[in-house]
Amino acid sequence: MPARAIVAACDLFGIDSNRARVTIARLVAQGRLERAGRGAYALTRAAETVNRNVRTWPEIGQLQRPWTGDWMIVHMKHRPSSRDRESTARAIRFARMIEAAPTVAVRPDNLHVSDFELRETLVGMGLRVPFFITRGTVDASASLEFATKWPVDALRAEYARLTARLEASLARLNKIPFKDALVETFTLGGEAVRALVLDPLLPDVMMPPYERNLLLEMMKQYDRMGRTMWRRFMAPLASPETSDFAPIETAAFAAGEPAHLQREE
After folding, report:
1. Residue 130 phi/psi, 5° resolution?
2. pLDDT of 253
3. Mean pLDDT of the 239-258 span
4. What is the value of pTM for the model shown?
5. Between the CA atoms of 12, 23, 198 and 182, what dihedral angle is there, to the nearest 10 degrees?
């Protein structure tokens, strides 16, 4: 993508051109962006891991398979250091797992995900501690403990709120200034995509999928509208290969969990 397109998009959010260009240079130094021709940039291979995970959101329903009661368990050989704690937590979230102990992450074994794919996601998203993966049954007490770790009620309520907000936004996007509509699709669409990407995809017996499915279908409609608007904005700034860029998904890259979804121990 040309730097001028990145700078123009940043301007929509009140980020001046100097700050945008300094940040581009910093991202290149960090290995997240790389030069791709004169005045243009692309994601590096390291950043592409995140991008690939985020872009799967429209097909998340296809990842599930019937649950037999088995669990996927990641055993870390030691606790993450204070420096690695945040990246470890992010990797676990993107793997749709949850911490069961300081060195153990778990999830129901109901996804079409191989050990290789799970390892690739964990490492690609920042898990630096050596680990190994097991799958199988656990005793009834542990299974119950694992099953109750997810904030199911909070997740369902949040999905219902997001669906209502998307529906309301969709109805007004053509009635507000174009620049405001671009910003709104980025921020609100990014929230919804992030919620879907981080959804744990639990078995129906643990978390009914009704609210998630409604959010997914509404977000698909919203995404079509958002892409149309961002394509119009990008057309004079970028080549045909990049003018279809829809940055809604980039808003989902941030780590951290919304405060109302954090469980109190």
Report:
1. -60, 140
2. 54
3. 54
4. 0.86
5. 10
